[in-house]
Specification:
There is one protein chain. Helices cover 48% and strands 20% of the residues. It is of the alpha+beta class and 624 residues long. The chain has a 5-stranded antiparallel beta sheet, with helices on both faces. Helix 15 runs antiparallel to helix 16. The relative contact order is 0.05.
Length: 624
């Protein structure tokens, strides 16, 4: 294999690096060895000084000069390493020296090691010796107490002697270093050959990327050809990862949209297996499993509704037929009722054909069109509210027709009877029929007025501008407006505001609500009964107005229905008011109240007990 620039860069770089590391390591080792040896020698010199201290203690004075000089020369000659021993007084006078004559030596009071010893008890330094004319290691130790020292014992050795003692060790270390450097060169050669195989690593990474594994990444350090290739490969990996991330985001967006759809969506492939189902469909089909668990499951097992199964499977396997599907074949739609745990719902189920990519068949030619297969798309649209609205409208028309027909029939019959009567001869009978005409025409007028009011509060386009209303003043006006009727019916009527409060509502709707509530209360309360309207602050956001009566009350099973149009609660046997003061109701009052309260953004509560009375509370927005 031809060795290129990349190989030589690796080899020379590694060889140089290893050489530098080895040289630095040897230098550090030699330095540490010298330091350790010097420390060991210093400890030896200190030990020698400590051994001489008892011998010279009390003798460091000029009278003992000969004795001390002889002792120094004797001890110095017995040490094989050429150790020098000196005895010095506290004022610097040399009394004895193993390698010189004390008389010829100058005062040592200024020597650093002597000063340190007298001050601290011991001292050491390396400096040039004027007596020996060479670098010397000195160790000094004080004799006597610090406040009255006798003198100093100094022990020294030449630095050359120290180097001679470590020469063999140094030579051994550098021999080892040279051998290690040769081994490092051989190692660098092997590493260069090994690391040059990075091309093989790049090839392997490219293979992984081509197979869809985007976790492999190549080192792009350097400016050579391999680095350029690695950069290009990593860029390709980044682009592919970005495309996959975009696809993943689109899938998540699709899942989010399907999750937010109120319509149920189910997609099956050509083998009648579910490939997509959204939460709305799970709910409508009453399936107690997660959507991810249903993917890949046959539609017959996932959906238990046989009619939907037939719609999805119809003509699914006719992919190879020659005729094109007609519109009726491509789309089917039916309305059905589904029973859920929360209740019964009405849905429109629509099935359409769907062209799906066929991922199981490989594409030999990349430029060819994507192969497709037939599938089915089922959409379930919840029309429960629409069906209820249509039914409510039908019931309303039926009830309204019935309620209007009754007074009209009575009025027509009374008119025909009056036309055939002798009004002058039978004044009593004619007066009775005229009274019937008056009562039923009044009832018909009230019913039309209530229908118009109900229509207005139910119309979405109606706008009721709110105003700030003083509830205490409003209740005072309400009491005055209904006092005459209450007095005529012998009913105790009063309005009470526990505290001053303001509400932000439309005055017209509030009047419509209160008039219907008070009218109902007076209508179903017997003589000597009582009706009270009161107001209080419910909380920081609402004002509560209550209308309480002591009338006949409403049975529990009817309390949910009294707010329906034209529904009139039955008077319970034995109730306190078996009549309505001769004024029949239209059955629309509480329905108007309910819709008007909703229109002003309020809430409504009903509490009633048979033979005890009824309390209706409305909660209105509070104005601060």
């Amino acid at each position: 294999m031809k060795l290129g620039r990349y190989f030589w860069k690796l080899f020379l770089g590694n060889a140089l690096l290893l050489g530098l590391v080895l040289s630095a390591s040897v230098l550090l080792i030699v330095r540490e060895f010298d330091r350790f040896h010097l420390q060991e020698l210093t400890e030896h010199l200190e030990t020698l000084a400590e051994a001489l201290a008892p011998t010279v203690e009390g003798k460091l004075s000029p009278v003992c000069t000969k004795e001390l000089d002889a002792l120094a020369k004797h001890v110095g000659s017995s040490e094989p390493e050429g150790i020098r021993i000196t005895f010095v007084t506290a004022d610097g006078l040399v009394l004895g020296d193993s390698q010189a004559s004390p008389a010829s030596m100058e005062s040592h009071h200024d020597r650093p090691e002597i000063i340190d010893a007298l001050t601290n008890g011991s001292g050491a330094c390396i400096r040039w010796s004027h007596t020996l004319t060479r670098e010397t290691r000195y160790v000094a130790m004080r004799i006597g107490p610090a406040n009255a020292p006798e003198g100093v014992i100094r022990v020294a050795m030449g630095v050359n002697s120290i180097g001679a003692r470590t020469k063999s060790a140094r030579e051994l270390m550098w021999t080892i270093a040279i051998l290690s450097l040769a081994a490092a060169v051989v190692l660098a050669l092997g590493l260069a050959r090994t690391w040059s195989r990075r091309i093989a690593g790049i090839t392997a990474a490219a293979q992984c990327i081509s197979e869809g594994d985007l976790t492999a990444r190549v080192n792009t350090a350097g400016k050579d050809e391999v680095a350029s290739l690695a950069i290009a490969l990593n860029q390709m990996r980044t682009n592919l990862a970005g495309q996959l991330l975009t696809i993943e985001r689109q899938n998540r967006m699709l899942e989010s949209l399907l999750g937010r759809l109120k319509d149920g969506v189910v997609v099956i492939d050509s083998k009648a297996k579910i490939i997509l189902i959204n939460p709305a469909a799970i709910t409508m089909l009453d399936i107690k499993r997660d959507p991810s668990e249903l993917v890949g499951e046959p539609v017959e097992q996932a959906i238990s509704i046989h009619e939907l199964q037939r719609m999805l499977l119809a003509r699914l396997h006719q992919e190879n037929t020659e005729h094109s599907p007609t519109r009726s074949e491509a789309a089917q739609e039916t309305q059905m009722n589904l029973q859920l745990a929360e209740g019964r719902i009405s849905v429109i189920a629509s099935v359409t054909e769907l062209a799906l990519p066929d991922f199981e068949k490989p594409i030999s030619d990349p430029d060819s069109a994507v192969r497709t297969s037939k599938g089915r798309l089922l959409t379930l649209t919840d029309i429960t509210e629409l069906a209820q609205t249509i039914q409510m409208k039908s019931d309303f028309v039926t009830n309204a027709s019935h309620q209007l027909r009754t007074p009209l029939s009575v009025i027509r019959a009374s008119v025909e009877t009056l036309l055939s009567m002798d009004l002058a001869g039978d004044t009593e009978a004619s007066a009775r029929f005229i009274d019937v005409l008056d009562r039923h025409s009044s009832r018909l007028e009230a019913m039309v007025a209530d229908l118009l009011s109900l229509s207005r509060v139910e119309t979405p386009s109606s706008h009721f501008a709110p105003e700030t209303i003083d509830i205490r003043a409003y209740l005072a006006e309400l009491r005055a407006r209904w006092s005459d009727l209450a007095r005529n019916r012998k009913i105790k009527w009063d309005c009470v505001a526990q505290e001053a409060c303001l509400s932000h509502v439309n005055p017209e709707l509030l009047t419509l609500i209160m008039d219907n509530l008070v009218d109902n209360a007076l209508k179903f309360t017997p003589e000597e009964g009582s009706v009270v309207a009161s107001a209080r602050v419910a909380d920081s956001c609402q004002v509560a107005i209550e209308v309480c009566d002591t009338g006949c009350g409403i049975a529990n099973e009817e309390q949910e229905r009294v707010f329906e149009r034209f529904y009139q609660a039955k008077i319970t046997s034995g109730a306190s008011s078996p009549h309505t003061h001769g004024v029949p109701g239209t059955g629309l009052g509480l329905s108007i109240v309910k819709h008007a309260v909703t229109a002003i953004g309020g809430e409504l509560e009903l509490e009633s007990t048979v033979r005890k009375g009824t309390k209706i509370t409305i909660f209105l927005p509070r104005s601060t």
